[in-house]
Specification:
mainly alpha, Growth Hormone, Chain: A, 85% helix, elongated, cell membrane, transport, MFS_dom
Length: 248
């Protein structure tokens, strides 16, 4: 009887570890893809400046392209506020889906966007809007992924588990650079004409993979418990700065 109980306990422990690895992998992979989408613009800023800011000299065009790149970073905190609140209302899983879809579609749209030569001033305006949508999505994704993993982590391992989320920015940057190099090799002399669009268009494939993976994820048990007990915060921002347990 004792051996049977030990075997059952070992099986349950093994199943729990597999689920934890799945959660880390799924959360990290989706966040890597989002960082890939986010960093693509920076890797292609020189080409983008010629395609979307062609109405001025090259130096000014490049500065404008970098300013559009910065717009994504500026709105990230607002994305964290908006999607953090949404995560407290509808759950972490569904917020995850919203952020990944918003990022993927925004990036894909950049790959389809007509240039300045085709639609004039509307091209850079739409580009900046799409860039801001990317920033909003990443702002919600990054904090949401860390929260989701932390709420699944066993006692004493939250720092270790969420550390995987911290590494996703580097991996996303590396992936974006590799894809840009591959696209440059494939398109050759046509890279600045149409080849630069390939990395952005690839994001629709990454979006499909991420969505499929995240649809199989379960809601955070901590959120389910808080919601069942009616303990979901009504004013999370205010409580973050006025509640003593949160300040410690």
């Amino acid at each position: 009887m004792s051996d049977y109980i030990q075997e059952q306990g070992a099986a349950a422990s093994s199943s729990s570890r597999r689920e934890e690895r799945k959660i880390i992998f799924a959360s990290s992979l989706g966040t890597v893809f989002e960082w890939y989408d986010f960093f693509l613009y920076g890797a292609l800023a020189a080409v983008i400046s010629k395609q979307f800011f062609a109405g001025v000299n090259d130096t000014t065009a490049f500065i404008f392209a970098l300013m559009a790149f910065a717009a994504g970073f500026l709105v990230r905190p607002f994305g964290a506020l908006v999607f953090g609140r949404l995560g407290d209302m509808i759950g972490r899983k569904y917020t995850f889906l919203v952020t990944i879809v918003l990022m993927g579609l925004s990036t894909f749209a950049v790959g389809l966007l007509p240039t300045y030569a085709s639609i004039g001033i509307a091209a850079p305006i739409i580009l900046v809007i799409l860039r801001m949508l990317q920033g909003l999505a990443l702002g919600g994704e990054y904090g949401g992924a860390a929260t989701y993993v932390a709420e699944h982590a066993p006692h004493g391992k939250r720092g270790f588990y969420t550390g995987f989320i911290q590494s996703t920015a580097t991996l996303g940057l590396l992936l974006s650079l590799l894809v840009v190099l591959g696209s440059r090799y494939i398109s050759g002399d046509q890279f600045e004409t149409w080849g630069w669009r390939l990395p952005f268009l690839l994001s629709i494939v990454l979006l499909a993979i991420s969505t499929w993976i995240r649809m199989s994820m379960h809601e955070s048990p901590a959120f389910v418990k808080m919601k069942a007990q009616g303990k979901v915060s009504k004013s999370p921002i205010r409580e973050s700065f006025t509640s003593w347990p949160n300040l410690k």
